[in-house]
Design a protein that fits this description.
Transcriptional regulator, AsnC family, elongated, 2 domains, Arc Repressor Mutant, subunit A, transcription regulation, alpha+beta, WH-like_DNA-bd_sf, Alpha-Beta Plaits, 6 helices, about 160 residues
Length: about 160
């Protein structure tokens, strides 16, 4: 993934402020040529520097009011197979490999406690999963954010 320079950071900041801004509006706001803005946006999108649009949809709006983090202990040689199997469970939002006691941190959503039980049973049924531990997310105190890093990269902090 290519590095995001100060101009890219300013562009992403402007998009964050107005996600529906046109390329022309962004170019005027940033004092850049329209083609420059268009090329930079295309590069940021194709390189994976910009997350998919679906990240903006909150699971709660889809009826998934319960959020939990599941740590998973895995038979070591099964790590990639377990990751692949987890990707087929729709309620699994992300899976992160960890160092330490647990092997994976799995963020899941559920409609209610019974639904969380069903999802946990699915995870436990995956070959290679040895044990799970589930912690309910009670409240998010700091939302996912990158704005302070963008400000630093843009030189506007």
């Amino acid at each position: 993934m290519p590095a995001v320079d100060a101009t890219d950071a300013r562009l992403v900041q402007a998009l964050s402020e107005d996600p529906r801004a046109s390329v022309l509006a962004l170019s005027q706001k940033l004092g850049l040529a329209r083609n420059t803005v268009q090329a930079r946006l295309a590069r940021l999108e194709s390189s994976g520097a910009l997350a998919p649009y679906e990240h903006r949809v909150r699971p709660e709006a889809l009826g998934y009011r319960l959020s939990a983090y599941v740590t998973v202990l895995v038979v070591q040689r099964s790590l990639s197979d377990v990751g692949e199997a987890l990707s087929h469970i729709p309620e699994v939002l992300e899976v992160t490999a960890l160092s330490g006691v647990a092997d994976l941190l799995v963020r899941v959503v559920a409609r209610d406690a019974d639904d969380l039980w069903r999802i946990t049973e699915q995870v436990l049924a995956i070959p290679g999963v040895q044990r799970t531990d589930t912690a309910l997310a009670l409240r998010r105190l700091v939302e996912h954010r990158v704005a302070p890093l963008l400000e630093r990269a843009a030189g506007t902090e």
